[in-house]
Amino acid sequence: MQVIGKTTCPYCGVGCGVDFPVNEWKEDIRPLENNKNKVCGDAHHPANFGRLCVKGSNLIDTLGLDGRLLHPVVKGKQASWDTALDTISTKIKQVVEEYGPDAFAFYLSGQILTEDYYVANKLAKGFIGTANVDTNSRLCMASAVVGYKRAFGTDTVPCCYEDLEQCDLLIMIGSNAAWTHPVLFQRISAAKQKRPEMKVVVIDPRETATCDIADLHLAITPGSDALIFNTLLVESERRGKLDYQFINDHTNGFKDTVQAARASSPSIENTAQEAGISVNELSQLVKWWCQTERSVSFYSQGVNQSSSGVDKANAIINCHLATGRIGREGMGPFSITGQPNAMGGREVGGLANQLAAHMDFTTPGAIDLVQQFWHAPKMATQNGLKAVDMFQAIEEGKVKVVWIMSTNPMVSLPDTNQVRRALEKCELVIVSDCQMNTDTAAMADVLLPATTWSEKDGTVTNSERRISRQRGLLPAPGEAKHDWWAMCEVAKRMGFMKAFNYASPNEIFIEHAALSAFENAGSTLRDFDIGGLSTLSKPEYDALSPIQWPVTPSQPQGTKRMFEDGLFFTPDRKARFIPITPKAPVERPSEQWPLVLNTGRLRDQWHTMTRTGKASILLNHSEQPYVEMSPSDAERLAVKDKTLVKLSSRVGEVLMRAKINEKQKSGNVFVPIHWTNQYNSANVISSLVPQVFDPLSGQPESKHACVNLEPVECTYYGYALALNPLELSAFDYWSDVTIPKGKRYEVAIKLPLDLSSLVHKAVYNKSEQSASSGDIECLTYTNPITNEHRFAFITKAGSESRLVAAFYFSPLPNLPDSRWLTSLFEREDPLNTSERIALLAGLPADVEDKGDIICSCFQVGSKQIEASIHKGCRSAEALGDSLKCGTNCGSCIPELKALIESTSTTSTTLDSEELAS
Ligand SMILES: Nc1nc2c(c(=O)[nH]1)N[C@H]1C(S)=C(S)[C@@H](COP(=O)(O)OP(=O)(O)OC[C@H]3O[C@@H](n4cnc5c(=O)[nH]c(N)nc54)[C@H](O)[C@@H]3O)O[C@H]1N2
Ligand SMILES: Nc1nc2c(c(=O)[nH]1)N[C@H]1C(S)=C(S)[C@@H](COP(=O)(O)OP(=O)(O)OC[C@H]3O[C@@H](n4cnc5c(=O)[nH]c(N)nc54)[C@H](O)[C@@H]3O)O[C@H]1N2
Ligand code: SF4
Ligand SMILES: [Mo]
């Protein structure tokens, strides 16, 4: 009988419940290869009701131990936990004594559990005495937090997921939820299919997969969101749609706010022109907004990651307050969270400008209250350093010890060259990670092996305030330990025995819950109150069902929606309007840096790929980084599709492949954020983003940098496949594309080199395990007309020959499909004669070239889909019936629809690169 463990997905803030097949796993053995049991969506979890997206469905493929950090490392050498913990605690004590508590800093993550966060926050703010506790949520949620706090006096998401299904108008601002919150997007799509009268508007400079369900897409000039919402406010007033009762009874500051809105957005015509959209488009949004009571504004990084992100958030919230569309079914300003536990961090107070449990340093009496609760010897008394400031202070030598936990700032902070300089300068860099080789781990003095998803035990809070359990179902591999444990051990070594003597995450959680209710006057002072969970026994905690905070004696089953009573958490309990004067992004295009760089996410990768990069299936959708540009920019700059280009800004430069897309606005380019130096020859896109941030929230403007783009002449494009890792330093560009077995790289070479010596160097430099060159035969093929070159290295042993490595080069970037070659590494039996011949062609005549994989779940490629469309499949459902694509997680449905549209209007072109073998 199969035992199913219930846990929560470790990726996005939707927070889906996951059913995990537990008894397929044995102590220390991970039968990944034989494990046919996939994880499934938990049918009873209120976030997903059984659905999972493609990242969630493939979780098991990311659990292999390859690349896992399995023991502590101190100064490059394997060490015991004792040595590592002593090194850390001794150094923290020393710098704190010598330079004061602010010489220490934690840089945490919205991906640690609430219990981890709580321990870090307590140790730093109550025992070491510094508020230098910041997190990657600064790059993610900080503007949304400040927006809510300015308006409501508290950091509170008023809505719940049902509101997205119940509304009649959904405005999605700077969110590509089809790729970034896929299960929620599917819930929205299903609701819209049921009630086609429900309107969806997408506000995004790019036409994304999310536009698939949009009735209206406003492709605004980047950064012009606040103008649009000021217009909605002005027009709501002009058309008599304001809720004066609500404004009078429950808010302050309306008059100044509407005046500021009138000043910036005097007319629809004016705003349309400034925002780069048509008057008709904007009029349509205004009309729908004015006539639709049940409206939700759903916003994400296109709003937050801006130098005026807080103002954008308040411009949105103002419109909801003015129309009284908050605290009721199907309405409200809904900031969607990115990470699985960014919300938990916010609840704990794990940001440098928060104290604890929804209390700030400036909240009257809060420091004393927390000190009393923690019995804390040394309270921090004022805000600490926010992420970017923290890394600047490290470079300036003010912060001397930094403990980085569950985040990869060498990839994700803006201006990663600055981050490198800072970490090089820092006296002790501690990195807690589950993976050994990350760009940040490479900078560490002490590496601590962390347990990760499926091993960790604790809670996370999703975007609708719902607290769910992540459960430890697998044993910790090697010497990996829980993050909370490592911090408690350091705290104890620093002399704080009693306060950090937790035996389990349950003990930490109930303390956190008790603090939330401590002297909270029945939750009237602070809305974050989970006092109702403060007495959970271990079995109760282990069995905890998903529940939305607040959880109090009066709301023991949790709380779906906030502010239903119109009472906010300001001193007079009224919400505040904030007058907004829209500001343009800081960097302006110039002659030297003429293009606007926008960065964001892809459907199948998670951040810096340390986990999703392990699953070959998840690399099929996008194999390598690219810069997406409009056809007119490409023509003007003489850039051809798939060729190599150089992108540069005032702080860095990268090389990547061009992807020409008519959905990209001209003057704007888009680059995915995921690739790191572990997977690619130096293409970290954040190295181009300068450290510009919102002065109120400290959140970087990661969606708007100014860059130059130029073509890079290449003599050859190609790919390399090998059983063992290749030495690729002689290649100008390479990208590692994970395959089930062996290695595959996409490569490019600028100068004409001797290809034969290049490939021999690549194979022999590093593959000591492989047979010596005497046992390996190199087959070659050159086409003098097309200037294509192919090399296949096979073991010589006659009929037993197997593929060791293969290289394909062409002056053009279109190469034959390598899937068949890749599959040879997975095979048991040796190559037969016709296969040996086919090696140099890339594909035997009887194997189908599927094209780019569109449906990851069923591995269906674009060429198969196009063929079916030509045979008459004219809907996603029809394609699903014939090829199964889109019938599992549904993430590819927007792309299927796009293919139907493009294939139906254009005739297919034959791939000129296909070889007659
Ligand atoms: N597949 C996948 N899903 C993820 C993640 C992942 O790594 N991979 N990460 C998770 C995390 S932590 C986060 S924070 C979320 C982020 O989720 P999203 O915010 O949905 O994702 P992004 O791709 O960062 O950006 C969203 C959109 O903002 C647009 N944008 C850029 N500038 C502007 C502007 O000025 N105005 C407006 N209105 N839009 C603009 C971009 O074109 C982009 O399409 O995703 C979460 N989900
Ligand atoms: N240019 C640009 N930059 C961006 C963004 C953008 O849109 N554009 N988006 C920003 C946003 S919204 C975000 S959220 C960040 C994300 O950026 P990061 O936080 O830097 O990215 P991750 O890859 O999620 O890093 C998580 C790390 O934690 C490790 N890990 C996983 N589980 C555990 C665990 O349980 N314990 C420990 N100790 N480690 C663990 C992983 O292996 C990985 O190394 O990027 C930000 N940077
Ligand atoms: S939508 Fe996908 S990534 Fe997000 S929590 Fe659900 S399964 Fe995980
Ligand atoms: Mo994020």
Structure report:
The structure is a single chain. By secondary structure, this protein is an alpha/beta fold. It has 6 domains: 1-66, 2-Layer Sandwich (Phosphorylase Kinase, domain 1); 73-140 and 342-548, Rossmann fold; 142-335, Dimethylsulfoxide Reductase, domain 2 (3-Layer(aba) Sandwich); 595-604 and 624-711, Barwin-like endoglucanases; 716-838, no CATH class; 853-916, BFD-like [2Fe-2S]-binding domain (Arc Repressor Mutant, subunit A, Orthogonal Bundle). Helix content is 29%, strand content 17%. The protein contains 29 helices and 34 strands. The strands form 8 sheets. The protein has a 7-stranded mixed beta sheet with strand order 5-4-16-15-14-6-7, with helices on both faces. A hairpin with a 2-residue loop joins β4 (73-74) and β5. α8 (225-238) packs across α10 and α17 packs across α19 (416-425). Mean pLDDT is 93; it is low at 767-771 and 907-917. Molybdenum atom (MO) binds at residues 140, 338-339.
